[in-house]
Design a protein that fits this description.
2 strands; single chain; globular; mainly alpha; 14 helices
Length: 365
């Protein structure tokens, strides 16, 4: 599918202009930067420490008890999720700092979690953010044949039960990153002619292979060599680490777009979308648990997904403040602002949508 185009002018052009003007005014009037503040820096230190310190202690103290080793890897899985949601994510959007080298450095932290910064920027920044919930372009809607995230995807008999088995598949997400997804995606991005914005195909393959080999050596091979324990202790702990990270990341990202309220618009015959980009984001995105400061802190403000999609170059610590502006402007223009009161409600909504999609006939129009 070719990349679609959004109209620059439309019914709600003034909405987009006024919203951006109001948000810019908020930062100017309060004399604050749209980038990371002190609390963000402290969170960065905490999340990186949560990922790294347990690992160092395990090797330095020579853990031999299986439960201590599993506990270590669980903490690493939580730290890995925290780094991804709170630090790497902002940095790869250029929202952490006005200094490019800082964003690059922190954005590359995904390489130390078994993923690829190159692929993340293409899948997430380019395809997901630009073409949210558009079947064939938003790669977040294409996790594999066993899952159906859009009514335009071909329905299989297995999809009748996807609301039951989805949670197990979600836990495998980061394992799939490590062993296969990044290589498969790289070939796709080359075919789509968007890889050239990051690197040549050969360079990208070399960088991904190198970082994955280093990752496997650090978190799997080195503990096996240093710790005087059966190999299966480390293998089990490694898998549990990824189960924790995969499920955590999936439960944050999926209720943001695949719920009963959000739309799955498609382009017309001329490959053009009906709505301007800002309105498209409102119709395809969902917020949840916005009154929980703890949830907001833990998941990098991604419960304010609407604000993130409208202002991806703004650090997430500012989302609660600018959400009031976005919600008010949407109300003034009669536009949707989808929002669940709690995280649990959003997950339940996502589960209902999975069940509905599993039994809904395919749409071809």
């Amino acid at each position: 599918m070719e990349l679609v185009k959004f109209p620059r002018k439309g019914q709600y052009t003034d909405f987009a202009k006024e919203l951006r003007k109001s948000v810019n005014a908020y930062f100017k009037e309060n004399n604050i930067s749209k980038y990371a503040n002190t609390s963000m820096v402290l969170k960065t230190i905490f999340m990186i420490s949560l990922y790294v310190v347990p690992y160092i202690l395990m090797l330095a103290l020579g853990f031999t008890n299986i439960w201590s080793i599993i506990g270590t890897y669980i903490l690493m899985g939580l730290g890995m999720s925290g780094v991804g949601l709170s630090i790497m994510h902002d940095a790869n959007h250029g929202a952490y700092s006005k200094k490019k080298w800082i964003n690059t450095l922190l954005g590359n932290l995904i390489n130390f979690a078994g993923g690829s910064a190159i692929n993340w920027r293409l899948q997430h920044n380019v395809l997901h953010h630009s073409f949210t919930n558009i079947d064939g372009l938003d790669q977040d809607l294409n996790p594999g044949k066993l899952m159906r995230f859009t009514p335009r995807t071909k329905r299989l008999k297995a999809h009748n039960y996807q609301h039951l088995y989805a949670w197990f598949l979600y836990s495998l997400m980061t394992i799939y990153w490590v062993v296969g997804k990044d290589f498969k995606d790289l070939a796709l991005y080359k075919k789509m002619n968007i890889l050239k914005h990051e690197a040549s195909y050969g360079e990208a393959i070399a960088r991904i292979l190198l970082t994955k080999v280093l990752y496997i050596f650090m978190v799997l091979v080195l503990p096996i060599l240093i710790l005087n324990v059966p190999v299966w202790y480390i293998l089990v702990a490694f898998l549990i680490k990824h189960f924790v990270a995969g499920l955590t990341l999936s439960l944050v990202f999926q209720p943001a777009h695949v719920v009963e309220e959000t739309a799955f618009p498609q382009p017309d015959k001329e490959n053009k979308m009906e709505d301007i980009a800002a309105v498209h984001q409102l119709k395809t995105t969902n917020n949840f648990g916005n009154n929980s400061k703890l949830l907001t802190w833990l998941i990098g403000g991604l419960n304010f997904q609407i604000e993130h999609h409208l202002f991806p170059n703004v650090c997430h610590v500012h989302y609660p403040a600018i959400s009031k502006i976005v919600k008010q402007k949407a109300k003034e223009y009669g536009l949707p602002y989808y929002q669940q009161s709690t995280f649990a409600a959003a997950i339940a909504d996502h589960a209902r949508m999975l069940k509905k999609l599993g039994r809904m006939d395919s749409l071809t129009a």
